[in-house]
Design a protein that fits this description.
6-stranded antiparallel β-barrel; mainly beta; 7-stranded antiparallel beta sheet; 284 residues; 9% helix
Amino acid sequence: MLLAALLTASGLSAPPDPAQVIGGDPAPAGQYDAVVRVDRVHVGNHCSGTLVRPDLVLTAAHCVDDIADTTGLRIWFTSGISAEVADFGFHPDYCESCDTNRFDYAYVRLSDPVDAPAAVTVVTDQEVWDSTMQTSDVLTVVGFGDVPDRPVAAEPRWLVEVPIRRFTGGGIEVVAGGDGRDSCEGDSGGAAFVTAPDGTLQLVAITSRGSDPCGAGGYYGVAYHTMGWLSEVLDDATLCGESCSTCDCLDTRPLPEDGCCSTDRPQDAPWLLLVLVPLARRRR
């Protein structure tokens, strides 16, 4: 009862029956194939990730921070083909104990680029952000997480559409989902997609953590906030987008309620103090 009350006070719903925590569906065959399984070989479990360059997968920092070397990771595609890892790393500002803005970002670079599936674009354009990333807009979350009672032969990737509930300070993280529509164990590092005005599917955030048990919503790190670090580590300014090579041009704070003027976006609001301090949560 206490957990339910705290969840309600923070704007997230209490978790439903564990048998219904996901509320999603199998990902359609041939779609979302850029979402990959990140096997933590020596640990014996897995995360998810997204191919954003033919040789580059984005995932969560907590998926790799305890991995000793490249033999401890292997990437699997839905085609059944696997790829060896050349190197990996996680964001220097990663903070496992932080309540918000954990910078839970990591990369895994493949030994050889892949021709298929096609890599997806990260949202770096202000127009795309403003048209898809406001409160109550919907994210499409895809991952290789655990699904209760999943048939053995079912599609391993599942997706669920979750509404945006909140943004953390500076728009670095998005709080989304709840009411039994959520990511869960094994979805860590997976993709949160939006559909741009031109119809393309673009990666906007990375699954980080959420309620325990799953179902009450979770935190997703905005992918743009790792692009500056990645562009330096990998010496690839194209990761920042076509119009801004410095990775500091996208304002991810939410628009004011009247929808006007990105230059007038609000600063951190008092509700941020309520969002997750009291929540039970765990890595995904």
